[in-house]
From TrEMBL, chain A:
<protein>
    <submittedName>
        <fullName>Multisubunit sodium/proton antiporter MrpC subunit</fullName>
    </submittedName>
</protein>
<dbReference type="InterPro" id="IPR050601">
    <property type="entry name" value="CPA3_antiporter_subunitC"/>
</dbReference>
<keyword id="KW-0812">Transmembrane</keyword>
<feature type="transmembrane region" description="Helical">
    <location>
        <begin position="6"/>
        <end position="23"/>
    </location>
</feature>
<keyword id="KW-1133">Transmembrane helix</keyword>
<keyword id="KW-1003">Cell membrane</keyword>
<feature type="transmembrane region" description="Helical">
    <location>
        <begin position="30"/>
        <end position="50"/>
    </location>
</feature>
<comment type="similarity">
    <text>Belongs to the CPA3 antiporters (TC 2.A.63) subunit C family.</text>
</comment>
<dbReference type="GO" id="GO:0005886">
    <property type="term" value="C:plasma membrane"/>
</dbReference>
Automatic annotation (TrEMBL), chain B:
<feature type="transmembrane region" description="Helical">
    <location>
        <begin position="6"/>
        <end position="26"/>
    </location>
</feature>
<comment type="similarity">
    <text>Belongs to the CPA3 antiporters (TC 2.A.63) subunit D family.</text>
</comment>
<feature type="transmembrane region" description="Helical">
    <location>
        <begin position="38"/>
        <end position="55"/>
    </location>
</feature>
<keyword id="KW-1133">Transmembrane helix</keyword>
<feature type="transmembrane region" description="Helical">
    <location>
        <begin position="277"/>
        <end position="298"/>
    </location>
</feature>
<dbReference type="GO" id="GO:0005886">
    <property type="term" value="C:plasma membrane"/>
</dbReference>
<feature type="transmembrane region" description="Helical">
    <location>
        <begin position="413"/>
        <end position="432"/>
    </location>
</feature>
<feature type="transmembrane region" description="Helical">
    <location>
        <begin position="469"/>
        <end position="492"/>
    </location>
</feature>
<protein>
    <submittedName>
        <fullName>Multisubunit sodium/proton antiporter MrpD subunit</fullName>
    </submittedName>
</protein>
């Protein structure tokens, strides 16, 4: 069996675009990225199903002329799952926009705190400036 | 016996799903919702315990073909010693956390305006976890993962406040990506072998070109590694877990990462035994242990600190799997069972602390031991257990893993043993820091305005409700109980490890080589 090159190329392009969009900071673009990525992988399943054939319905075709129904069943499940997830991310993006006026994925609070400290050239809260070492046992010092 | 298996095996998956539908229909009756979900999860606990006894005293592995489709075409559900043990621990923990969260809901006065979606989502989460543990088919494993992930997205962002949406975004995007990687792996595996049935795969993957095998293997490991929060793929976890309400964090910390670990154990033993990636896994385990615990030491918020210890201790389990010997696997299985209980308990206790003192920031807490001795005891016991102080199960699990490492005897194994010891000591240090600052010494004056911490409790300073303390105390007792029954438990995990290495019980049961189809 030789795989279908067109399908592989289409799948590759979709996955590449999807990954590129996933790296964006706005949730809406991430969402589009997920959709593209999901469809790229679904096409990969079609490649996995091998040569095309007749509809796999008993009585309409013999086993030799049928196409493999199993990957199609899997793709169907994957489509449904991706659809659900996309709906959820859409709601999340909308909520984020409602709260902040934009839907950018934000930094963690702790990360931002560390960055701010680094910019101010501050040491962490547990660092003792006098002894020049981190003192965790603050109970011993007044 | 097989007739019993037919009824029991699908129960942990089907019953919570059915109950979820019922609770959704009864959205306006919180009392009925509560009764249904507690009953459903209690039945799952009973079923899981029965199945563990059946598999451990019976032939070791049972499988049921769902819908009567033969295993190669349809979806089998498989119960062996590993999956039933995981199922028992997870269902006990799920039930305890449900009781805790119910008490919290009642105490917070949510009786009048209940979050009607909580019960159905929680039950779906439980069904997803059971499905992932019992699935004998890669694609069904993917579906199990998606079920539990979808439920976890909703639980994490419940309420839709600013902090939860921010934390949820990171979590959702990372989880989606890991699912995509897993799905790609499934497509490629089907392309290479023509099947997604794990038993069938373990036979067919041998004939696949080694390089292709390596690609498939790594894809699966990356997908599961993100879910299990193994080091280079773990950055999302401490960002997203601490903002969720205490019971949600507790159940996530206990279960979700362990499902990833379970999937790694299955892949390593069943699909790619002695695979080329075991060296890689060794180093990943070391990095996870050491980097995770160093992160924990640097934190000044109890929830974040615990999240980092969670990442760190995943390293112990990966260590056991990477060794690939019976001792290593047995240690890993034992450690998973121990860690689910202990980590969940610690997060529940942190929830109680937050409720009592209004914060989980170490800078704002102080002298809790004097103010509330009961909380101090509840925290102290699982904390010492996590750190691995001798009489407790944490010590026994670590000892088992370290012994397995020494038995392997290569220099890499010795490096990992050293890493394990250092991690254990640093865990003790991190826990001692929490104990010192939160429980022992006087509260400090707040140094700056940043101290708010990650408080999520809605009511602060009220009396800690009994309904929240009892499930926590029960889990503390279970954690200690694991120490008491460590002998039999190690027996089960030893036999589970033997089954995993042997592989034939699993494959022959699923493919019906030995057991003929009954009643068809």
């Amino acid at each position: 069996m030789s795989p279908n090159v067109t399908l592989i190329v289409v799948s590759g392009v979709l996955v590449a675009c999807g990954v590129a969009l996933l790296l964006e900071r706005t949730l809406t673009r991430v969402l589009v990225g997920v959709v593209l990525l999901g469809n790229g992988i679904n096409i990969l399943f079609l490649v996995a199903s091998g040569r095309p054939g007749l509809a796999p319905i008993l009585g309409k075709a013999t086993a030799e002329t049928m196409s493999d129904p199993l990957p199609q069943a899997m793709v169907l499940t994957a489509i449904v799952i991706t659809l659900g997830m996309v709906a959820f991310v859409l709601a999340l993006a909308y909520r984020s926009w409602q709260i902040d006026g934009h839907d950018e994925v934000q930094d963690d609070v702790e990360d931002r705190r560390i960055v701010r400290r680094a910019e101010l050239d501050e040491t962490s809260a547990s660092y003792d400036d006098d002894t020049r070492e981190t003192s965790e046992e603050e109970g011993t010092s007044p | 016996m097989t007739e019993w298996a037919r009824v029991l095996l699908p129960l942990p998956v089907v019953l919570p799903l059915f109950a979820a539908g019922l609770t959704l229909a009864l959205a306006r009756r919180p009392r009925a919702q509560r009764t249904i979900s507690v009953t459903a999860l209690s039945v799952v606990v009973v079923a899981a315990v029965t199945m563990l006894v059946m598999t451990d005293h019976g032939s070791g592995t049972y499988s049921v073909d769902v819908g009567g489709w033969p295993a190669k075409l349809g979806i089998p559900l498989v119960a062996d010693r590993l999956s039933t043990l995981m199922l028992v621990v997870s269902s006990v923990v799920t039930l305890a956390v449900l009781l805790y969260s119910l008490a919290q809901g009642v105490a917070d006065g949510e009786e009048g305006t209940p979050v009607s979606i909580y019960h159905p989502t929680y039950l779906v989460l439980s069904a997803g976890v059971s499905n992932a543990f019992l699935s004998g088919d890669l694609f069904n494993l993917y579906v199990g993962f998606e079920i539990l992930l979808a439920a976890s997205y909703i639980l994490l962002t419940l309420g839709g406040t600013k902090a939860r949406v921010r934390a949820g975004t990171t979590y959702v995007v990372v989880s989606l990506l890991s699912s995509m990687v897993f799905l790609t792996a499934i497509a490629l595996i089907y392309m290479a072998t023509g099947t997604v049935n794990m038993a069938e795969l373990s036979l067919r993957l041998r004939d696949v070109d080694p390089d292709v095998q390596l690609v498939l293997h790594l894809l699966l490991l990356v997908g599961f590694g993100i879910k299990a929060a193994v080091f280079p793929l773990s950055a999302w976890l401490p960002d997203s877990y601490p903002t969720a309400p205490a019971p949600v964090t507790a159940v996530f910390a206990g279960l979700l990462t362990k499902v990833g670990v379970y999937a790694i154990i299955r892949t390593e033993t069943l699909l790619f035994p002695g695979g080329q990636a075991s060296q890689l896994l060794l180093w990943v385990a070391l990095a996870t242990m050491v980097v995770g615990i160093l992160g924990a030491v640097a934190q000044s918020d109890v929830k974040r600190l615990l999240s980092f210890t969670l990442v760190s201790h995943i390293g112990y389990m990966v260590f056991g799997v990477a060794l690939g010997t019976a001792g290593g696997l047995s240690g890993a299985v034992f450690y998973v069972a121990h860690h689910i209980t202990v980590q969940t308990t610690l997060f529940l206790v942190t929830g109680l602390i937050e409720r009592y003192a209004g914060s989980t920031s170490l800078d704002a807490l102080g002298s809790l031991a004097k103010r509330t001795p009961l909380l101090a005891v509840l925290f102290f016991v699982p904390a010492m257990n996590l750190a691995g102080i001798p009489p407790f199960s944490g010590f026994l699990g670590k000892l088992g893993l370290l012994q397995a490492g020494v038995d392997v005897g290569t220099w890499q194994a010795y490096v990992l043993v050293a890493g394990g010891v250092v991690t254990s000591l640093l865990t003790l240090y991190a826990i001692a820091k929490v104990w010192n600052r939160a429980f022992w010494q006087e509260p400090q004056t707040e140094p700056s305005g940043e101290v708010g911490g990650l408080a999520t409790a809605t009511r602060v300073g009220t009396r800690t409700p009994l309904g929240m303390v009892v499930p926590t105390a029960a889990l503390v007792v279970v954690g200690v109980g694991i120490t008491v029954i460590a002998g039999p438990l190690f027996g089960i995990s030893d036999r589970a490890a033997q089954d995993l290495l042997d592989r034939t019980p699993y494959t022959s049961t699923v493919l019906h080589d030995r057991v003929p189809e009954v009643g068809e």
